[in-house]
């Protein structure tokens, strides 16, 4: 009995020592450590190298590509429109843009207008160049702030080129030297327009020439004359040979005709309008359009005979 008891005690003692040895060792290590809240953590600093001259040049080159992307689209659309490269598949530029690019009617024109403003803003940035691969001009110590989206330049399409540059510089200043939002640009443009507001002096019945000035909504009307039949605060409604158009004051120029001459032009306008129709032959429409561009308050004897002939032919004599 005594030997059996002694063996059991030895076995228990050995088992107890073996099972607690690793845990006790770990606990002992933890207990001997300092308070974790007071422990010191060593962080190795990683040095970020400065950009090399080549990398700075690459960065500017790529940034300019981003800035110009949307405005290059506007230039491409302008060429597609002006050269009528859509004519093999679509009858109008608007239909082509909707089917090919998913653009709504006004969007391609906004991009075209924006590209013209962007080109104007580039003129005041001496560090820009058309040849972006030229290292002498791509690298610059001063970054030029230019628009990156169509919405940032849309408000400036209402201004003259010099005013556009002024508005953009002011908007960049308001934005703290960064690319301004469309809202900031709009506010700046509004203040410039209020400052330069010119009263509308046109009168009903006055004969004016339409000046397009890259306004896509007036495409095909450059040089045409019209009769003012409504005077607004910033625009006039004028009647031409094929309809009525609301035209901003900056797109009108008075012929300064005498009252009797204005009345005579009103009669001519009414006569052309009664004959003109989209269903007419192209040669007839072209003739009427030319009459709608004469820069004198009368028709020559030949022009008068041609117009009378068309009135007889199409039964449009009043």
Automatic annotation (TrEMBL):
Ranges of biased composition (kind: Basic residues): 1-10
Compositionally biased spans, kind Low complexity: 11-26
Spans annotated as Disordered: 1-36
Domain of life: Bacteria
The protein's name: Uncharacterized protein
Lineage: Bacteria, Bacillati, Cyanobacteriota, Cyanophyceae, Nostocales
């Amino acid at each position: 009995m005594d030997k059996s008891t002694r063996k059991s005690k030895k076995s228990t003692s050995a088992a107890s020592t073996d099972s607690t040895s690793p845990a006790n060792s770990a606990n002992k290590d933890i207990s001997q450590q300092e308070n974790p809240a007071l422990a010191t953590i060593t962080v190795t600093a990683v040095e970020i190298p400065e950009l090399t001259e080549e990398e700075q040049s690459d960065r500017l080159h790529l940034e300019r590509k981003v800035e110009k992307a949307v405005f290059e689209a506007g230039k491409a659309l302008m060429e597609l429109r002006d050269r009528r490269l859509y004519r093999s598949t679509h009858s109008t530029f608007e239909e082509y843009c909707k089917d090919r690019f998913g653009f709504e009617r006004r969007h391609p024109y906004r991009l075209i207008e924006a590209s013209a403003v962007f080109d104007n803003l580039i003129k005041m940035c001496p560090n820009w160049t058309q040849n972006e691969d030229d290292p002498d001009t791509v690298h610059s110590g001063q970054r030029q702030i230019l628009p990156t989206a169509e919405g940032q330049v849309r408000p400036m399409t209402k201004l003259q080129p010099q005013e556009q540059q002024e508005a953009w510089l002011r908007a960049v200043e308001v934005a703290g030297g960064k690319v301004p939002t469309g809202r900031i640009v709009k506010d700046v443009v509004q203040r410039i327009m209020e400052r330069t507001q010119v009263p509308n002096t046109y009168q009903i019945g006055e004969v004016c020439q339409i000046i397009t000035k890259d306004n896509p909504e007036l495409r095909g009307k450059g040089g045409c004359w019209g009769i003012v039949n409504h005077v607004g605060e910033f625009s006039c409604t004028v009647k031409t040979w094929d309809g009525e158009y609301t035209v901003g004051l900056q797109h009108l120029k008075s012929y300064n005709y005498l009252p009797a001459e204005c009345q005579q032009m009103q009669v001519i306008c009414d006569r052309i309008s009664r004959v003109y129709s989209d269903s007419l032959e192209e040669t007839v429409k072209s003739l009427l359009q030319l009459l709608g561009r004469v820069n004198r308050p009368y028709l020559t004897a030949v022009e008068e005979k041609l117009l009378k002939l068309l009135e007889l032919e199409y039964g449009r004599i009043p």
